[in-house]
Amino acid sequence: MSCYDCCFSLNIWYQLITMKGVIIILAAYFLYYCKGATVTFNVKSNVLNDRPIIGVLSQEQSFYLHSKYPDENYTSYIASSYVKDIESAGARVVPILIGKDRGYYEELMKKINGVFLPGGATFFNQSNGFADAGQHIYEIAKKLNDNGDYFPIFGTCLGFELLIIIASGRGEIENRIRCYSHSNLPLNFTQDYRSSKMFKETPLDIINILKTKDVTVNAHQFCIVDENLKSHNLTNDWRVTAHSNDDYNVEFIASVEHRRYPFYGVQFHPEKSAFEWKLSKKYPHSYEAVKANRYFMDFFVQECRKSQHSFASAAEENRYLIYNYEPRFTGDLGSAYHQCYFFEPKGTVSYKN
């Protein structure tokens, strides 16, 4: 074969390969927009961000802790166990304040790589509170992902319930049920959990601990059950990966993920095994418990590494970080949280560049 023939053949192959690539891309777009497929476009998702920064949403100050700091009159807080859990997985934290307008959340989410919705105890019907902020974040994150900008969310306990309630439309009657669990429990995985985003690469030893040991910490009065997903037509969007049973044997959803977006939720508290120490709570602090619970934030932070958002400069970044606040030791005050960060009206950080 002559050099000309060789070059001609290579050129034909190149054109065929290029045409095939175009066909694949067009097919993917068709599935995405016409079929609601689980395709997420992000051309930079294979380039990982080794300096991820995650926003943690604050929530309304509890009446109990407000009584302990009456002069400061703090309006919101974040339990430091969530911050430590994220930092232990190799990310830094920016506090997200409640009571802000949508523009605040839009601007902040352009700079950070994901949002964590914590557990806690607050109402979802308070104006300009945790739920309203969560709804802004959820809607903005959907828009980012729809535009090919990978942006994960992870909700724990109350935060997980909020994700589902927002997805349900936040009706006057909340899409959750009463559910009492104050126990350490194993996970009852669904049959196809290994094909899920959250658990497809989980090491077998961690799976075995989660399946057979009482290592997931539950502390909730509400929960999401399968019927909550069915009643609001959420089964096409949300995938259940595990259940547990409450103190009265009610089966509730223990872990879930969105089929299309990188949104995840767990009803239990992975952070408590390593970072909460109240004796009366009897949280599991064994090596196995800490190791198994460590997986969830490691997974989420790895998801956040796929986001390429960043601050304009190191100086701007520093002004936002939670290091600007000093955690208070609240465990000796009778609080369920060992330490807490408190926000507004004192200690307000300027969010101007």
UniProtKB/TrEMBL annotation:
Q: Where in the cell is it found?
A: Secreted, Extracellular space
| Catalysis performed (reactions) | (6S)-5,6,7,8-tetrahydrofolyl-(gamma-L-Glu)(n) + (n-1) H2O = (6S)-5,6,7,8-tetrahydrofolate + (n-1) L-glutamate
Give one GO molecular function term: gamma-glutamyl-peptidase activity
SUPFAM superfamilies in the cross-refs: Class I glutamine amidotransferase-like
Indicate the transmembrane segments per the record: 12-34
Q: Enumerate the UniProt keywords alphabetically.
A: Hydrolase, Membrane, Secreted, Signal, Transmembrane, Transmembrane helix
One term under GO cellular component: vacuole
- At the top of the EC hierarchy, this enzyme's class is hydrolase
InterPro entries, per the entry:
Class_I_gatase-like (IPR029062), Pept_C26_g-glut_hydrolase (IPR015527), Peptidase_C26 (IPR011697)
* EC number assigned by the record: 3.4.19.9
Q: Where is the active site?
A: C157 (nucleophile), H269 (proton donor), H269
What is any Pfam family matched here?
Peptidase_C26
> Which GO BP terms apply?
tetrahydrofolylpolyglutamate metabolic process
Q: Which family does it belong to?
A: Belongs to the peptidase C26 family.
What name does this protein carry?
folate gamma-glutamyl hydrolase
